[in-house]
Known about the structure:
binds 2-acetamido-2-deoxy-beta-D-glucopyranose; serine esterase; AB_hydrolase_fold; disulfide bond; xylan degradation
Amino acid sequence: xxxxxxxxxxxxxxxxxxxxxxxxxxxxxxxxxxxxxxxxxxxxxxxxxxxxxxxxxxxxxxxxxxxxxxxxxxxxxxxxxxxxxxxxxxxxxxxxxxxxxxxxxxxxxxxxxxxxxxxxxxxxxxxxxxxxxxxxxxxxxxxxxxxxxxxxxxxxxxxxxxxxxxxxxxxxxxxxxxxxxxxxxxxxxxxxxxxxxxxxxxxxxxxxxxxxxxxxxxxxxxxxxxxxxxxxxxxxxxxxxxxxxxxxxxxxxxxxxxxxxxxxxxxxxxxxxxxxxxxxxxxxxxxxxxxxxxxxxxxxxxxxxxxxxxxxxxxxxxxxxxxxxxxxxxxxxxxxxxxxxxxxxxxxxxxxxxxxxxxxxxxxxxxxxxxxxxxxxxxxxxxxxxxxxxxxxxxxxxxxxxxxxxxxxxxxxxxxxxxxxxxxxxxxxxxxxxxxxxxxxxxxxxxxxxxxxxxxxxxxxxxxxxxxxxxxxxxxxxxxxxxxxxxxxxxxxxxxxxxxxxxxxxxxxxxxxxxxxxxxxxxxxxxxxxxxxxxxxxx
Length: 539
Ligand SMILES: *[C@@H]1O[C@H](CO)[C@@H](O)[C@H](O)[C@H]1NC(C)=O
Ligand SMILES: *[C@@H]1O[C@H](CO)[C@@H](O)[C@H](O)[C@H]1NC(C)=O
Ligand SMILES: *[C@@H]1O[C@H](CO)[C@@H](O)[C@H](O)[C@H]1NC(C)=O
Ligand SMILES: *[C@@H]1O[C@H](CO)[C@@H](O)[C@H](O)[C@H]1NC(C)=O
Ligand SMILES: *[C@@H]1O[C@H](CO)[C@@H](O)[C@H](O)[C@H]1NC(C)=O
């Protein structure tokens, strides 16, 4: 393990020391080469260069043209790079905005980032993270600008971009630019994304197996039409804040969370507020039903207990057909999807703008027929649930999939659900899937980042505790692809909350813990300091 670790870090650094022989060898040559990139010099079909600029390390880059709702006004750039902004026509009725950041100390690798939610937003912080590590990186706007799904309305081509074409086009164009700029081929191609970005990475593995050698996906929005049915259905369970079925947010985060821990935290052998395998938690909310004359802010009515029970049950559709796995206990701390009545904007936008194509459609009317219709239409072929990954496997691709078990937006139970679907579809047991597909269930990780446990696994720059493959999912994928070292565990870092002063520096380390690959689960050995990773075992 140690040797391989060093070789990955060495190969990351070696670009600095190889005497370059071309025009890029000097800072002036690099700047000039960057300035010389034009639409014509690239000659890529449908691609128009908007501008190029040399960005010096330490620059606070601002993005005045980025849609305000994206909330990404600036990014501190840590390495010298050439920034190329383009527009690429994807059909007569759609286009993507694409950026390619080419670092001066290139590690010879190519990488694509993804998006999140409905965006519409180039994830500059991810591009900065991976270019700072030396990857030539692309990021696109997913075919529209801003965080709303409204641009899908009567625009099937824009939906296609969102479903698959933005990432794929960005990869095809970005690879050509990378090769042209450095005047040599990249060695390997990678992907890093979470949530919608997780779905985009899975889509590439399923439908464009040539695009990447190593793919890191987190909390993927898999089975997308059904996911939106599931996200929308919580409203039907909870009702409005005035109804007697409603459970206020503060009850979820206090008494319900505490009671879940009381019933399930010890299942992994140690009570520390972290449930290592949430699939084992069959929570019984009836324990919280009020005693006579009990203060109702410390207990539940029978109706509220029913709401809690239903939130943690799978969703079934017309004729009892299984639609989506249950929300997992552990999500209640950040359960944005179900704990507050907000008109479930995420799900309703898909139904409004892509399924019904009706901006006036009322989300309160959602029902079983809508779920059936969405799955039947499958706009843009967005479902992303193909279980046959054999083309990706055959070309030697590696898929590293992780999901936080405190995710309150996309249930972490969809990840083992998909993994098992792949296992059955391909007829392969885990011992065989292990050669190209590994799933890690991360205790104490919320949706992509955050959470109460060892949630820093290098999935984002603000959740990066180090570059050793054993504790960084991106470096683990590189080590797997290039050196054949498959990750057995991912070492997560928990930081003391409130001490993280700068998003690029980690706060004081609280503890570290190794997260197991599915179907293994983490248990405490019964001896020693539980904050020491060595006191836990994958069984
Ligand atoms: C970068 O510039 C923006 C806009 O001027 C500013 O709001 C932000 O604080 C700056 N960031 C840093 C790290 O200096
Ligand atoms: C270029 O755009 C056209 C139509 O706008 C589209 O049909 C075609 O697929 C695009 N080509 C590439 C290589 O993306
Ligand atoms: C998105 O915004 C960019 C920058 O303002 C603009 O060039 C592009 O045309 C916009 N894309 C769409 C699909 O509106
Ligand atoms: C990239 O690799 C291909 C196939 O091996 C080769 O034909 C091509 O010349 C290479 N391009 C550069 C710029 O080295
Ligand atoms: C019920 O409990 C809450 C929170 O502990 C407290 O603020 C409130 O005063 C209590 N109400 C009664 C009637 O005791």
